[in-house]
Structures are given as C-alpha cells and as structure tokens.
Automatic annotation (TrEMBL):
Source superkingdom: Bacteria
Family annotation (InterPro entries): ACOT8-like_C, Acyl-CoA_hotdog, HotDog_dom_sf, Sec_Metab_Biosynth-Assoc, TesB_ACOT8-like_N
Natural source organism: Congregibacter variabilis
Domain Acyl-CoA thioesterase-like C-terminal positions: 124-260
Full protein name: Thioesterase family protein
Xref: PANTHER family: CHROMOSOME 23, WHOLE GENOME SHOTGUN SEQUENCE, THIOESTERASE DOMAIN-CONTAINING PROTEIN
Residue span, Acyl-CoA thioesterase-like N-terminal HotDog domain: 21-102
Length: 264
C-alpha cells in the first residue's frame, strides 16, 4: 500500500474518517509522523488549502491499526493562511491533538538567506539501509514502508557501538518511486532512529510528547537528505531538531520534537 493510500482521509461526512494501516508501526504503535500526516490531510481538506505550513501535534496515546476519526475545526480563515484545530481519535480514546496552518506553498515568495547546507552524505548505496527485524522488533516494521539509508558514521549503534554524538543523518525516499509531497515530509520528520541511540546513555525508547513540523517547499523528486541532532538531554526529556533537504539542495522541512527519556 502506498503512503498516499495509507494516509487517505474520507471527508464526506463530519467527523472525517481514516484507517491506521498495518506496518507503519514501531513495536505495534503507529509512527508519530505517520499519524501526523493523517491528521494533516484531514485538516487540509477542511481548510480547502492544499498543504500544511506548520503543524504541531501533542501525543496523548499510542495508535494501533484500525479506524480513526478526525474532527477538524476552522479557527481562522485568512487571505493566505487557514488555521485549523483537530483531534485524531480511535473508537475509544483521543490519540493526538493538532493545531496547524495551511496554505498554497506556491504563494509564498520573498528574500532568501539560508545559513546552513544539506548534510554531507555518502551516496545512498554506500550508506546503511535500515530494514525491519521482526524477531527483535528493531529496526521497526515501518522500515519496510520506506527506503531509509543511514550515514555509516551514525549507524554503528545498530552493532551496539554508539558514536557518542546524538546525531543521525541519512537518505530517505518512498518505495516504488512514489513522490514525497508535503504530507510525506511530515513523515520524514519522525521516521529516523532517535538521536539518543548515539548518545551512549541508558535509554532504550523515547516516546514523543510534542512534535512541530514546518514545511518550507514542495520537494523536487528524488532522495531527501535528512539531519537530526540533539543538544539537551536533561530532566527526563530531550529535544530533537530536524532538517530535511530535497534533491535540488533546498531546505523543504524543519522539525522540533520533545520526547521523554525513561531509563532502559
């Protein structure tokens, strides 16, 4: 099943309906970026604007495969941006609470200054492909839904040898040449391994509390270059800052995630 179909939303009645598809999970729980994409598609339909510009999600409970509802509510419809609030809910509980702004990305033009460059990566075929391991549960099942290649310097945690630097870089694309649209960029901000896996700390999982994604442009076809880094791990929490660059070398998305760091 394509990513587009796996995040499809039926907006013929309110609340809208969708289905959490099999295989987009981490040890049984649906990936946060995947859930964010479902919610954002519903919000874009309600806004009658094609793409997310900024979306924030607060994660309330794990999502499992099955039906969900989304109830987008227009907060303000402006000339260029429409702001929408929504709850993505399973039959028995809310899963994420969302607030976002939606617009036509093509309508945003202006002066440019970018004080950063795409991450320096070896070619994809010289990077480490992350494939699911059903017996161990890691890498998780969703790695079978994307083509993700890690920088060799950042992949040694897979062998029990973390780099010591909370940094993860790599390439990302969807299988079968499926193009990545701005909703796919929401997935990209949350489908790489947590940076803390390279921090050499006694932490085995990092449940997301909040994730904000900024979409800067519709990506050109081809591989995405991604970089995720962390500077502060303290008080039982960590932040993770993400950059996503398209095949033309243009910054197309940014993200910041707050996650818990319970001890292993």
């Amino acid at each position: 099943m394509s990513f587009e179909k796996a995040t499809a939303v039926d907006s013929r009645q309110h609340p809208y309906t969708a289905e959490i598809a099999e295989g987009w999970d981490i040890v049984g729980n649906a990936n946060g970026g995947y859930l964010l994409a479902i919610g954002a598609r519903a919000m874009a339909k309600a806004a009658a604007r094609p793409y997310p510009i900024s979306v924030t999600a607060h994660y309330l409970a794990p999502g499992r495969p099955g039906p969900v509802t989304i109830d987008p509510q227009i907060i303000k419809a402006g000339k260029r941006l429409t702001t929408v609030r929504a709850t993505l809910q399973s039959p028995d509980k809310p899963l994420i609470e969302l607030l976002g702004s939606f617009a036509d990305l093509a309508s945003f033009t202006g002066p440019a200054r970018v004080d950063a460059n795409p991450p320096d990566l070896p070619p994809p075929d010289q990077c480490v492909r992350s494939v699911p391991n059903p017996e161990l549960g890691f890498p998780p099942a969703m790695m079978g839904r994307v083509d993700l290649r890690l920088h060799p310097d950042d992949a040694n945690f897979l062998k029990g040898k973390p780099s010591g630097d909370p940094l993860i870089r790599g390439w990302l694309r969807l299988p079968d040449n499926e193009p990545i649209d701005p909703f796919g960029l929401l997935l990209a901000t949350d489908c790489f391994p947590p940076t803390i896996f390279n921090a050499n700390l006694p932490v085995a999982w990092t449940p997301t509390v909040e994730l904000t994604a900024h979409i800067r442009a519709v990506p050109e076809p081809g591989w995405l270059r991604c970089r995720f880094s962390t500077r502060f791990i303290s008080g039982g929490m960590m932040e993770e800052d993400g950059e996503v660059w398209d095949s033309s070398g243009r910054l197309v998305a940014q993200s910041r995630q707050l996650a818990l760091t319970p001890q292993a």
